[in-house]
Amino acid sequence: GSFGEIKDFTASRIVQQAKTGEVEIIDLVVPRMDLSGGTAEQDQGAQSSPFSFSSIAVDKAPKVRLLMNKVRSIDGGVNLRLLSGSGPDASTRVQADNAVFAYAEGTEGSLPEKVTLDGGVQIDGTLGNIKADSAMMFPGDKRLVLSGHVDGSTPEVERFQAEQLVYAPDGILLEGTVAVKHPQGNVHADMARIEEGVKGEGAEAGNG
What we know:
By secondary structure, the protein is mainly β. The chain contains one helix and 14 strands. 4% of the residues lie in helices and 59% in strands.
């Protein structure tokens, strides 16, 4: 069925609170949900970054809370695909225990300003394959922050571990007890910076 901006979905149950207007959807699956009407900066970010997005596919969402036709949270295990609109393969899969969606004040659209992921975060796709305890995505800023036991790889880095990873348009910043597998050996430091599009030999590391 359809509900607000969520089209062609399946679910096992929908409950709407008459007083608050809040909607709870159980076992939601959506092949594609277009998120539009953000700022110009957000729309541009959705087209040019692997974790910024203009549409999502909801493969698993056991408990979804909506308010004013906007997704506010997903609990019980999240499995999403972020779709950039650049073709069927231009997607990034995101898994987590829970997700919270926040929207810029004064905007009418459904594109979130920030998505907070908590518990068992795993990101796979054009960005790389990364695991962490939590993450925050900022579509408008084209920025992703992963925190807590960050472990994984990207097209630029064969393998890394850190306490925090910040992915921005100009590159990747790793912080806190960083270990990077480098073509010329392993690097251990307090921080490491990898420029976008540069393989392991472009990494810069430092202590203190």
